[in-house]
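pipeline/complex-builder :: batch 7 item 3
reading input block
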Amino acid sequence: MAKNLKIGLFGFGCVGQGLYHVLNNSKGFKADIVKIAVKNKTKDRPLDKGVFTFDKFEILDNPEIDVIVELIDDADEAYNIVKYALSKGKHVVTANKKMVAQHLQELYNLQHEKNVSFLYEASSCGSIPIIRTLEEYFDNEQIQKVSGIFNGTTNYILTKTISEKLSYEAALKQAQEKGFAESDPTNDVEGFDAKFKAIIIALHAFGVFAKPEDVLNIGITTLSDYDINYAAEKSYKIKLIPTVTKVADDKVSIFVLPKYVNSNNHLFSVDNEFNGVIVDGEFSGEQFLKGRGAGGHPTGAAVLSDISALSYGYKYEYKKQKQNPNIKFTNDVTLKVYLRYNNEEELRNFVFDSINEQYTGGEYHYVIGVIKLAALIKNKEFILKNKLFVASVGDDIKLIGKSENINESAKKQVAFA
Amino acid sequence: MAKNLKIGLFGFGCVGQGLYHVLNNSKGFKADIVKIAVKNKTKDRPLDKGVFTFDKFEILDNPEIDVIVELIDDADEAYNIVKYALSKGKHVVTANKKMVAQHLQELYNLQHEKNVSFLYEASSCGSIPIIRTLEEYFDNEQIQKVSGIFNGTTNYILTKTISEKLSYEAALKQAQEKGFAESDPTNDVEGFDAKFKAIIIALHAFGVFAKPEDVLNIGITTLSDYDINYAAEKSYKIKLIPTVTKVADDKVSIFVLPKYVNSNNHLFSVDNEFNGVIVDGEFSGEQFLKGRGAGGHPTGAAVLSDISALSYGYKYEYKKQKQNPNIKFTNDVTLKVYLRYNNEEELRNFVFDSINEQYTGGEYHYVIGVIKLAALIKNKEFILKNKLFVASVGDDIKLIGKSENINESAKKQVAFA
């Protein structure tokens, strides 16, 4: 039966307030928010002052509290809180993707060592129950690939560039005015946020641990009107897509790149602030999940679901990790990309394995071809500094040196001969 | 830890064979298929003869077997098998939506009485984990509505009427030739299959029990070129949509009708044999799940997931039923429909609460307006016999006599005045 949880809450912004309201009105289970830790001492708050504290240890060292719900922005402070709480044997629910992704291996070990639950559904794709679905439903399914739109801010901007023909700059400005993008949008528009989520999801889908600093993320900051026009001409849309692919039995590739998608792709119809996830299973085929990716309520719903699961003693089993303890992250893959460049000299920085298309006209030059991911990693700063635009095209992500590749390229050469 | 399951399998068609293969190759858990019951004594089968039996009691009365996986077509025989197995204290996994929907209350009671697991994810929407998601993720979310495309056969036919401008009859014929529709397609095209799934989903989303004979299903058999042209003119698509709506705190409406959907609806992009489900939660907003709805592999994936869950002792908690034991099914609602009729006399059978549009031209006549569901139930045979076509339009489903309705209609009258 459900347990009566005693909760210590960190943060009382939009998500925290919604959660407080819903917990007090839930028929399903009993969970009391005993204490709420907040930072700002002067802010007016809609609850009795006695429920708030400015001292985190008043919650963390309170033996009555058995669950910590962490909803603050600061990833470093969130890490301190979560680590301390887990060490003290408290269960933890968090929405902080950056914190989880940066310390995934350590927090994985700590929760096992202390035998406590550490749940973070709200960290990935808002209200879409992606982690739970991977853990509970696809636990014995061989997954080939997980990809999607994990960041609502960039998707809103990209939607406007297509639907209203706005430039990237104008769309970003509109997103900021409407509150969809922060005044410093780096985390979203450069693809860091999407990367953190992809790293978390990769553990649950494939059992692989990857470090944020090893995973390439190139965002949409260099998107130009040329690239937008290219999409429009081909009836494509541009989406920022984190892709997690099993490229061999024991190898998983992860990267975040813009992508040209056509209308056959489930993600084509995921617009504005929505998120979408495609899980490609060997047996089940493509599963597609779509929902609101950002905002207080969707995040709150995911946090609520974790708290509810906790009341039944739920823990992530990390079954994929246990099934595949030797699975490793790799960047040794090739992929097909569109690269817009400004002059021939720039292009010389990029060694393509094969070139499918090349276009030169006026100031607009692009090449489409197969390239090693390492070549993009090496040139990331160069791409951003010189405002080149790179986007993936198609779905072939292949491990370098894998035998099928050799055969296929041999076949291709014969075909061309 | 995971338990080693001993499985007795009923049926060895496409799903059963795929399952056998996957179970024998799964890293995740150990489950042995001890015995397989089949009907046809002369068929050649790819396994050793010793594993098969033609006597169901050889499985049902075998104390070594603790799990029954039921994958036969015959709903009545499936019911006998499942009831006997549950009574004997065996866990049961089934994919038979008709059987589950028809005996839902009895099988609900029996599994509680015998304290066994009864899992049927594969019965609803193929590989989409809708039951598990409702049970585990939305267990404390107030859901407003669940609707979707639950039947791949009709969706394939409807897609062809729009994308290839085929008539209903030509599209059905094509579906039969390609193996997407059975030679007797009644169950699919008249909406029975979708209804069974909606009834199962309604229990997990809202806690309500509904009997198949009380729930209206009108399918797509009377769809004419006029109706298809109407959709094309308005840039709509026609989809067969089961709709389960909470119309009051203690009242849930369920019906299956064709629907005109526009491109703002998530289901607009669910084509061919795909299924899609929209879960509309108060807190989480609209969640959309899409996946392959039919076929051996998607169904097998869902069965596999249930078996895997069983190995961890999983049971449905039916939390919504326990939270809302007094919730009742109702047909006392109004909805907005498009009704195509052949002559004025036919139209007199239908009393509309209000009429929004009426069109008469040549042989094509339709009316769009708000009508009581009871008026459609009363006229169901009349609609089918005279080949009228009815489709829902818009999303307003309201309990008759609910006070908001009165206020709103009062407001509306003022606005028109």
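note: Confidence is low (pLDDT under 50) at residues 405-417 of chain A.
queue -> next item
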